Amino acid sequence: MSPDLEKANAKRQGKAQKVLSNLGVKLQIFKPSGRELWTVVGTDGDFIVDYDSTGRRPSYCSCQDFHFRVLSGTVSECYHLIALKQARAHRQHSTIVFSDEEYEGFLRALLRDVFSRIS
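^ that's the sequence the OP posted. Answer follows.
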């Protein structure tokens, strides 16, 4: 591994640890369906993160680092994914319960926030 890549990975690990210490990984559960949505608070806002611990499907994060560096193969993970994996492993996340009726409004607001950072 190149020294630049090691430095970038160490920086991502540090940012992930900061997210964990601030309980920035959140699990939103919608009842009664049990639908789950994971978000991670980043430096620029909340990001949608999808991680399948079984490895059956690829991981996803709505951050720019994921889209520009992870998908291009420059780095293996963004710090949001690192934080989510660690939070799930150590149960170090906050859980928020909503009703199913709130799902659409919650998702619209979250996506509006994500897309506002793109433009």
